[in-house]
Write a structure and sequence with these properties.
The protein has 204 residues and is mainly α. It has two domains: 3-52; 61-191, no CATH class. It is 73% helix and 0% strand. The protein contains eight helices and no strands.
Amino acid sequence: LENLQPEIKKLAERLRYEVSVRGKQLGWSEKVARFHFKKNLRRIITELYIRDNCHPFKATLLVWVQIPMWVCVSLALRNCSVGAMDSGVQEQFSAGGALWFTDLTAPDSTWILPVSLGLVNLLIVEIFASQKMEVSRVQKLATNFFRVVSVVMIPVAATVPSSMALYWLSSSFVGLSHNLLLRSPTFRRLCCIPRTKSDSDTPY
């Protein structure tokens, strides 16, 4: 998508000139000329998305799978921790922890898991923010919203069973690892990911 922007800009300038010439020939008003420009630009952009197989909607597909799965696993872990499904499972959870969180049915009283979760989530948000060269007002608002959510998740994670907080931390840590890996120029070359204007030779 990023690599298409220069081509879209060039085609938009050419289209603007063609619509201007055509509009003068047919006596179009500025409103009609703008309508034809937007209509044809949408068609051109759609053709480019089809050509390069990179429609923006595809970037959201993972979210529609990931969020319901995250919610379902979180609810399942909560049910197991409070004994809603089977008291035998709850007993296994109460003795199945490790390190300082030996009881997965109780909240983490040390706050290590919740604070780690907040820091990892904040790190992911900052990685995304640092990738953007030109940031729009909407993107700034979205970034600040996710920063607030990351901080709010700390007290929330401190009140739920440790099994849920551990799952949330593990999930976020995997997300952070993916983000760091995809910033590696070597890894991107191995996966044949095309270079973009915002890519850095020293991303870390």
